[in-house]
Amino acid sequence: MAIFCEGLNKAYYGHTASPTDILVRKDVNNPQAKGLLGTVAKYAGGK
Fold it and tell me: Cβ atoms within 10 A of the Cβ of 17, count?
């Protein structure tokens, strides 16, 4: 059973999102995270 904080995901994504929605289906995103994701990708060797 996955344990997640529905309130935090709702605050971040603007609606309820389960770990499966985020990590498997990849059907949620937060446009404000673009800079962070770019920096992580750069240092992780991604594009």
Answer: 20
